[in-house]
Amino acid sequence: MADLTPDGPSVRIAAQMAFLTEADRLKSVLRASKLADGSRRENSGEHSWHLALYAMTLADHAPEGVDITRVMRMLILHDLVEIDTGDVPIHSKNGSVHHSAATMAAEARAAERIFGLLPEDQAASFRALWLEFEAGESPDAVFARSLDRLQPVMQNIAGGGGSWLEYSVTWPQLKERVGVKIARGAPELWDWVREKARPWFPHQD
Amino acid sequence: MADLTPDGPSVRIAAQMAFLTEADRLKSVLRASKLADGSRRENSGEHSWHLALYAMTLADHAPEGVDITRVMRMLILHDLVEIDTGDVPIHSKNGSVHHSAATMAAEARAAERIFGLLPEDQAASFRALWLEFEAGESPDAVFARSLDRLQPVMQNIAGGGGSWLEYSVTWPQLKERVGVKIARGAPELWDWVREKARPWFPHQD
């Protein structure tokens, strides 16, 4: 029989399972980016898997001192708040809403609710990792954010322009909203991908 | 300018990016299990993300000595071969095809091709991790496989019976094909989930 005392293992497992089942909803949050074959929009659950694989695969381009394991954990958690807030595309409304004060406040409330489903110790540690990613200051967070910017660029290149066409993104906007951030954590990856992205923005400085 | 010499970093990055873009196709491989809300079938990309989150969240139920980081890496890679082979549902054809010799040979060829897109050192280390998962003998692989069996049970409970109804699964079959394997790596998780699953199989021993 399962132990049903208040502090028993089954109470802890029940909280963890409630969190894991709630997390399933991230698979229904759609992003601006499409799959590489252009067939449909990507959801934030599969995007998070892809980013964890990016971290494993591109680890040798991380600056010294970056802990790839922590980067993977951050990337697995980083979008969970979108269950409540939805994805805010980086190029939507000409870049004005991504990371706005209103968006950030809504995301903080979402983190409180969603991580709050977990046992207290885990709620605190998962939320701390999410906050570190959001702050984007630690070396691990800077590298994680570079990958989060790099992956949609690769999807757009593979899939015929994708969200760049939809949002009429210009080359200066791509460099400012995306390139600077990829270069901050992973300069040699930006050097490489810049050359692949450049032909999609002809006749622009 | 990117370095285009044969051993230069840009050749390595190009191979890594080719692998990451090929990996995107896992988001189009559909599984028997549905999302927790029953709205559609789950794909193997988002399933792999969910399992990495399972590993992070349920780490305290792993046997001593299990390295959760390696478990997460295994789970992120474990289904990539399905890009070539498709998912083989555990309950399909009355359980006869999952892990059959023919299935395993096809998966080995797929691993050769897909991990072979990477630079040689990474191809070897990713394939070794996948083989360890497939063999299911090391403590890390045993725990990873327990989670891979546990997650669809939770999806079926949340989503109204899901693949159990579709494949007319019986309680003895569930215990044999699924329960034994969850219990092997995570006995207290099987104790907990068995009680939740049991009511879905009334009037069966």
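qc> The two ends of chain A are 69 Å apart (CA to CA).
qc> done
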